[in-house]
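Retro notes (design track)

What went well: tokenization of the new backbones is finally stable.
What didn't: we kept losing track of which sequence belonged to which structure.
Fix going forward: every design gets posted as structure first, then sequence, in one message. First example under the new rule, 675 residues:
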């Protein structure tokens, strides 16, 4: 039975709007589409992607714009299109099903579901004709439509098997406290996977894998991984020099297709750049390096110039920039030698030598800029900086890649926290202002009446309900701003969001579901409702919540936060073999057990206090929180600094409920932190 037409024209998601003119009768995910499948008895074709996804565009042009393929889809299936960034919960559920089939994940994700939403078969990209050992998309559609009509029993068996696997994946695996030796074994396995020559993890393609490397940095800083700091430093230097880095406009692409960081998939994601900025700040705080400072400044410039989205009362940041422009991947970013010569004139030879520009190019006859020479004198670097700016201005005349301008609370939360930290390390107060402006915009426009933060906003409208990751990332952002400013309103926000998370997402046994208790369009029943603890390109919501609880405990001394952190950690500690995939959770366990607080005392107008705070806020150890107190500050009796004199400028380090002796000079505080 043929369906009525495409229903994506009223969508808010830029990715769905990209498909609004397809001849496929797409429906957005929701109860209406699921009900249509149940009533009609047709299987569901579920296609999941995102606006900046190159291969999503390819499959759209090859298949979803083809009237013949669209007619086949419309006749045999209920077609549902999902933006994975709008609905990461749905993406996670069906990506897990693909993994349960033994397939490697990726996007576009192409899944086939029974009428009640149970997955029975799937894949990623399918070509229009058989190639690379893959069947054509037409062959897949015809075979599965035939199987639905003729072999429903086999489909039911496959669906039952995959649904059982999803239920198993959704379970928590409780145990006791995560033992230090279990964390050490996970650390060793992750370090063994690192590439000692090119940085990052071994092999290709290469992703930044920021949650892993932030954990390794933390382990290195507290003396639990001698090679952790070196692994992160190598990664950052390779990223900053590589083709994955936009040397003209700032920011980093999502990943490199090769093993040497040269050839990126050119899309830029907000979440990657937030986490890379965080790592750059930590590394530069320990060992200042102009290469890292330039990369950090480039991210900040890219945000301010290209990624701001106006919201009532302020602005936040867009989700991503596309890889493609004018139908070609990377066209906006690559160069030919003659074009660089024409723009730079006499300065061209020095620039070409520094950035690997040759007549033949380094990628498909073009050049992807990468830094291949060591830093030169201040005069040499100033010349290169001028050349980069001239090329950036010239490049700005090109047709830009598309921008996904939806505002996502969780990704903005990651960037707010990163900007707050980077502001102190790189002495950029404007970045802190940017973080505070963004935070206010999110909390003003995406906060619901019940205290939850919604997930997505675009064009004046909230269009996706809040998930655990949104509450966790914004609570973490609030704590970062509290530490950066001393404003107690931020800490109060973090505590309130922690309570919201418990009420709407808690499972009653310490862990947290990805979706809220009142979500109505999650298929397959309560047993499938996911508790996500493994990190992906972004840190997991459960890992971030554990960090928030641990940090609140160190900042307040309140046993409540320690108990919640312990319960959350214990909820996932029962299977040690899984912990390697959960570096954010492991970092939170270490933060809880070994972390501490730098207490800075004194009157707010005392310059000596300000000098101590500058050092404290620019420290490279992520297990140390910063708490500024004065004569009027009321600390809980449970806090280790309770009762300490707070009228004079001084700093002390408190760990394990004990505070050391105060110091009064920035140099002494540096020694205290690094010693």
């Amino acid at each position: 039975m043929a369906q009525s037409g495409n229903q994506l024209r009223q969508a808010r998601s830029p990715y769905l709007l990209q498909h609004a003119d397809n001849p496929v009768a797409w429906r957005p995910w929701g109860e209406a589409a699921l009900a249509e499948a149940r009533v009609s008895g047709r299987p569901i074709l579920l296609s999941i992607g995102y606006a900046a996804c190159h291969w999503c565009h390819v499959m759209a042009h090859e298949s979803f714009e083809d009237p013949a393929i669209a007619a086949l889809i419309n006749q045999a299936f209920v077609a549902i299109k999902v933006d994975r960034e709008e609905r990461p919960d749905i993406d996670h559920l069906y990506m897990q099903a693909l993994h349960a089939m033994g397939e490697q994940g990726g996007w576009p994700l192409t899944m086939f579901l029974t009428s009640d939403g149970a997955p029975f078969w799937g894949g990623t990209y399918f070509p229009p004709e058989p190639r690379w050992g893959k069947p054509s998309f037409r062959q897949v559609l015809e075979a599965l439509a035939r199987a639905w009509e003729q072999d429903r029993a086999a489909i039911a068996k496959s669906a039952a098997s995959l649904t059982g696997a999803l239920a198993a994946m959704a379970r928590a695996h409780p145990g006791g406290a995560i033992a230090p030796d279990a964390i050490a074994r996970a650390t060793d396995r992750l370090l063994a996977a690192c590439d000692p020559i090119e940085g990052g993890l071994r092999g290709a393609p290469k992703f930044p894998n920021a949650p892993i490397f932030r954990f390794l940095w933390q382990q290195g800083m507290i003396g639990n991984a001698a090679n952790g700091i070196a692994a992160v430093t190598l990664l950052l230097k390779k990223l900053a020099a590589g083709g994955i880095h936009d040397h003209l406009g700032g920011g980093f692409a999502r990943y490199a297709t090769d093993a040497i960081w040269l050839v990126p998939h050119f899309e830029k994601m907000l979440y990657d750049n937030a986490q890379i900025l965080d790592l750059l700040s930590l590394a530069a705080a320990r060992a200042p390096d102009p290469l890292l400072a330039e990369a950090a400044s480039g991210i900040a410039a890219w945000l301010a110039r290209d990624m701001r989205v106006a919201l009532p009362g302020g602005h936040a940041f867009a989700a991503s920039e596309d890889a493609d422009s004018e139908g070609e991947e990377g066209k906006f970013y690559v160069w030919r030698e003659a074009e660089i010569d024409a723009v730079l004139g006499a300065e061209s030879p020095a620039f070409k030598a520094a950035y690997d520009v040759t007549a033949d190019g380094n990628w498909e006859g073009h050049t992807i800029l990468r830094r291949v020479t060591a830093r030169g004198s201040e005069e040499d670097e100033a010349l290169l900086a001028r050349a980069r700016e001239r090329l950036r201005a010239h490049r700005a005349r090109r047709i830009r890649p598309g921008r996904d301008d939806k505002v996502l609370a969780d990704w903005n939360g990651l960037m707010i926290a990163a900007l707050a930290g980077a502001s102190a390390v790189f002495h950029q107060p404007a970045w802190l202002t940017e973080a505070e402006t963004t935070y206010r915009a999110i909390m003003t426009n995406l906060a619901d009446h019940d205290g939850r933060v919604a997930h997505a906003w675009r064009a004046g409208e909230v269009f996706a309900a809040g998930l655990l990751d949104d509450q966790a990332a914004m609570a973490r952002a609030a704590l970062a701003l509290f530490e950066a400013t001393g404003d107690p309103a931020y800490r109060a926000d973090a505590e309130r969001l922690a309570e919201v998370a418990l009420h709407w997402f808690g499972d009653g046994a310490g862990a947290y579901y990805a979706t809220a208790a009142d979500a109505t369009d999650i298929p397959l029943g309560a047993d499938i409702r996911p508790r996500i603890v493994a990190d992906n390109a972004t840190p997991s919501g459960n890992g971030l919540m554990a960090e928030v609880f641990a940090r609140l405990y160190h900042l307040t001394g309140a046993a409540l936060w320690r108990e919640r952190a312990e319960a959350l950690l214990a909820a996932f500690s029962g299977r040690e073999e899984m912990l390697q995939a959960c570096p954010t959770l492991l970092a939170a366990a270490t933060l809880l057990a070994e972390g501490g607080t730098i207490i800075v005392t004194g009157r707010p107008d005392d310059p000596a206090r300000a000098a101590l705070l500058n050092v404290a806020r620019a420290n490279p150890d992520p297990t140390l929180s910063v708490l500024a107190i004065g004569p009027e500050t009321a600390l809980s009796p449970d806090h280790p600094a309770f009762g300490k004199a707070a009228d004079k400028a001084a700093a002390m380090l408190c760990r394990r409920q004990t505070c050391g002796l105060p110091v009064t000079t920035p140099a002494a505080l540096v020694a205290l932190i690094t010693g």
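Added context from the reviewer: Residues 98 and 122 are 6 Å apart (CA to CA).
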